[in-house]
Amino acid sequence: MTALESSSVPVAAAWTCPFCPLLCDRFAVAGGPEGWALQGSDCPRARAALARFDALALSSAQPLIDGAACPLEAAVDAAARLLGTSRQPLFGGLGTDVAGARALYPLACRTGAICDPAGGAALFHGLRAMQDRGAFTTTLAEVHTRADLIVCVGTWPGARYPEFLRRCGVGEGGQAQVVLLQPTTGMVPDAPPAGVETVRFDGDLFDAAAMLAACVAGRAVVGAGGLLAALAERLRGARYAVLAYESARLPAQGALIVEAINRTVATLNQRSRAAALPLGGGDGASTVNAVFTWLSGLPLRSRAAPMGLEHEPLRFDAQHLLAEGAVDALLWIASFGTEPAPPAGALPRIVLGHPSFAGAAQLRGTVFIPVATPGIGTAGHLFRTDSSVLMPLRALRDDGLPTVAEVLRRITLALPEGAA
Ligand code: SF4
User: Fold this and answer.
1) 20 to 30 A from 18, CA-CA: which of 27, 160, 229, 360?
2) Of 43, 47, 52, best ligand 1 pocket probe by most atoms within 8 Å of the beta carbon
3) Whose CA is nearest to atom 7 of ligand 1?
4) Which atom of ligand 1 is least distant from the CA of 44?
5) Atom number, ligand 1, closest to the C-alpha of residue 41
């Protein structure tokens, strides 16, 4: 028996799933590296993710420089040299947990790196709306026990978050009615399951959200339509209404939609109880954002520049920086699986990722270091989609790979003197 096999979980073990921001913690995993079996759920997203952690891929994982295998120490030194000579590095992906984020921050400060997660645009829809006017949000536990009306604004979350309904208590003793408000233009229509009512709005999501806010406030709105007005009336009559939305599926300028949702919630709270439930921030995005905020006072899309901390929510968008050639080195972190993949291009890069990235890391100018996945190969912590809840993750096995935090600390220590 190998060390890998002896340290695996032989029978069903309680588990917190790290593969989407719902972070379900009521299921179990049985089996071992030759095949994991999810128990208590048939979530296709979790099953597909677990299937990527087979023993073969992990046991053969090793660091690479320009596609050639090397010891971890050599890869760390190469990464430190690359960052030490960069005039403006970009830290992207940011698929890591609390410990990884805590180790990333000092490295970002030493190198003056700009940090933006893979889902940066989606993260900033909600952040910008909250920065501008504030927000009332809720937790999954509150939705489960108290909500009597859940309105999903724009899209059906169950497609990307398969356990969404159960987490809201629907079908499990919860009393909530669930409604999907879907515009007829600008979005691909979703097909919610039976029992979820769909209210179609003749227009786009910007108009739908704005008119719903106005109807809830009791204003006469030309063009709102009877269905939207009726939905507003139901919201006003609910004891505890929840407006859920998927940040990653909002269109460009989605902060305007989130602002309208927040306005609706604020109006309802004058007479009853209501809250928004943003769904997103997975793959470490909201976790790294929370850690950077408590360490620096600023969210992501910030950097420690020679003149002090700078926060530029538009200018520090990673996609813009890459398209404009404004950065000369990339550190990409994706420890949860094969997504998000690093962007294409010839930019010199360091990839800390799932072992299956090795194939894409054969390029010249790439340092690749395979790392453990929180919740699979190492313990860790992640913030759930309701962001005030920090979930502990337990390892299913010791896969022998270093953690993101460990690698980042070693790179920071190996930086050349004076690198900044
Ligand atoms: S819904 Fe998300 S957290 Fe829950 S089991 Fe599926 S992938 Fe995992």
Assistant:
1) 360
2) 43
3) 46
4) 6
5) 5
The predicted-structure confidence for 303-355, as pLDDT tens digits, reads as follows 988 888 999 999 999 999 999 999 999 999 999 987 888 888 889 999 999 88
Residues with CB under 6 A from ligand 1: 17, 19-20, 22-24, 41, 43, 45-46, 161-163
In CATH, the architecture of 123-279 is: 3-Layer(aba) Sandwich (3.40)
> Max alpha carbon distance in the chain (Å)?
73
252 CA to centre of ligand 1 in angstroms: 26
Mean pLDDT over the full length of the chain: 90
Query: 104-154, pLDDT tens digit by residue?
Result: 999 999 999 999 999 899 999 999 999 888 999 999 999 999 999 999 999
Domain ranges within the chain, ordered by starting residue = 3-50, 61-119+283-414, 123-279
As given in the structure block, the two tokens for residue 267 are 């109006």
CATH of segment(s) 61-119+283-414: 3.40.50.740
Ligand 1 pocket mutation pick from 15, 23, 52, 163 by most atoms within 8 angstroms of CB: 163
Q: Is the pLDDT of residue 5 over 50?
A: no
Distance 160 CA to ligand 1 centre (A): 9
Q: 23 alpha carbon to ligand 1 midpoint, in Å? A: 6
d(CA 1, CA 4): 8
